[in-house]
Design a protein that fits this description.
This protein has 293 residues and is mainly β. The protein has a single domain, classed as Jelly Rolls (Sandwich). Helix content is 6%, strand content 45%. The chain has one helix and 24 strands. The chain has a six-stranded antiparallel beta sheet, with no helix packed on it. A hairpin with a 4-residue loop joins β5 and β6. The longest helix is centred in the C-terminal third of the chain and has 17 residues.
Length: 293
């Protein structure tokens, strides 16, 4: 299954606190294992799992086991450390289509106790031109119950074929749109499926169009001013911090100690993922963009 990474990219590393966005599918997984991601660690971030089609089973080291389906949100806050696995369940459907997003935690909260949320009834803003399901934050006075640690917003937008959906924006936020179907346009500008269009700050409204039934992710947030180190599955602030997290993951993975920093995921049939080797250079903290905005 091909996966497209839209964030971080060559010029932009973050949109608000959103620091990672992978897009996959629609993939035909009929008669195949589908998604199979063995236990692996995270620090300093929140993972946002969002599906347009299919289902994914989440297990984590806190003992949570949760199936996520389209229109439902799995939100895992790693904080000081957690591990989890993701897999297409037995008897899964023939198609898998979705996005995996990360939110960087601010310095004062990046070592919070890990926790997990599942929200199956998210608020929806709708009109004859389409609808927007609010994953995190607030859009058009619809507020998600998901816990956020910085001012941000994330929504899946569905556009009626041949129509233009207008949505209000928070002018203090920077925004971006990730096209998840063909034929999407933003303020009249075409955006290819799998591409992310950065919109900057200062906008109070957006117009999303589509030739056929269209779907996109709308992301936004107050610009994240802290510099971060993002390596493998860790978000930290320094090289040494990432080195320590890697060492603790490897120690716990080899020993299988359930009381270690990352705990143990039970129920997944394969061994946990080993951490890759660190680069032969110091990891440097970087800002949200390669050049000043």
């Amino acid at each position: 299954m091909m996966v497209g990474r839209t964030l971080p990219n060559r010029d932009r590393r973050m949109v608000g606190a959103w620091c990672f966005a992978d897009f996959y599918g629609p993939a035909d997984i009929a008669g195949q294992p589908g998604m199979q991601v063995p236990p692996h660690p995270h620090t300093g971030l929140q993972t946002v799992s969002w599906l347009l089609d299919g289902e994914v089973l989440h297990r984590d080291s806190l003992g949570n086991e949760q199936l996520v389906r389209p229109g439902e949100l799995n939100l895992m806050t790693a904080g000081r450390g957690i591990s989890h696995s993701e897999e297409s369940p037995t008897g899964h459907g023939p198609v898998l289509h979705g996005a995996q997003l990360w939110v960087a935690l601010p310095g004062e909260q990046r070592d919070v106790a890990p926790h997990f949320e599942h929200h199956g009834d998210l608020p929806v803003v709708s009109s004859s031109d389409g609808s927007a399901t609010v994953l995190m934050g607030e859009l058009a006075e619809a507020v998600s119950p998901a816990r956020a640690y910085t001012p941000l917003m994330g929504a899946e937008v569905s556009i009626t074929a041949g129509r233009t959906l207008k949505l209000p924006l928070e002018a203090d936020f920077e925004h971006a749109v990730l096209a998840m179907s063909d034929g999407i346009s933003v303020d009249g500008r075409p955006v290819r499926v799998g591409d992310m269009l950065y919109l900057g700050r200062g906008r109070e409204q957006i117009e999303l169009g589509s030739g056929g039934p269209g779907r996109a992710l709308l992301l936004g947030g107050v610009p994240f001013e802290e510099q971060i180190v993002m390596w493998w599955n860790f978000v930290g602030r320094s090289h040494d911090e990432v080195v320590q997290a890697r060492e603790e993951w490897e120690q716990g993975r080899v020993s299988g100690a359930p009381d270690g920093r990352f705990g143990v995921v039970h129920g997944y049939p394969e061994p946990a993922l080993p951490a890759p080797a660190l680069p032969n250079a110091e990891l440097r903290a970087r800002g949200r963009t390669r050049r000043p905005s």
